[in-house]
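DM from R.C. (forwarded with permission)

"hey, sorry to bug you on a friday — could you get me a structure for this? deadline for the figure draft is monday and I only need the backbone to look sensible"
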Amino acid sequence: MPRLRVVEKTVFTFEELSERAKESAREWWRQSALEDFDGDCVIEDARQIADILGVDLKTRGVRLMGGGTRQEPCIWWSGFSSQGDGACFEGRYAYKAGSCKAIRAYAPQDKTLHAIADSLAAAQKPFFYRLEARATHSGHYYHEYCMVVEVSDTRTGDCGRDLEDAETAITEALRDFARWIYRQLEADYDYYVSPEHIDDCMEANRYEFTEDGDFSA
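My reply, with the result:
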């Protein structure tokens, strides 16, 4: 029968580490940060803004650990340091009365969102606000230029040359919204990996480390 050995080691809370060891511990956190980061708060905010703008986001079923499913918006993204990173979405857009006023009430300081709502309304006006658009994802990347946008006139069913200017304007506005989503995700991720946020998480979870800042399971 093998002899059992008892090995003792000294562990430290994050607050007890030296500054050098703390930075080592932060780096441990950052190594798994992108895998753990979900951007849920940004996605939920984008869903509400989409509704204000008149964008009905397509949804997909996501399986839960308990066996059920929940519906999540089809907002696709990748980030944050590679070529091709970005965000896009799938759904249908139709003019929503009062959207320009509503977006200013929801996000009073966000000039980008104000401009998107204004651009969509301006594109709709010559057609008496009856245009609709369908945005779909195409390709292997997730950025605004992976969105294919098709615009049609709901009264006549027309699409194509007569709507060319309106389609260009609506496409660019929807892509601006995708860019906005990505910028919010990027900012949220930057905060997620910031020393301030990491330190708070380390202390709140009472993680323990070796003297050099290596995580002690």
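R.C.: lifesaver. The mean pLDDT is 91.
me: no worries. Strands lie at 12-13, 55-57, 59-63, 69-73, 75-78, 86-89, 91-94, 131-137, 147-153, 208-209.
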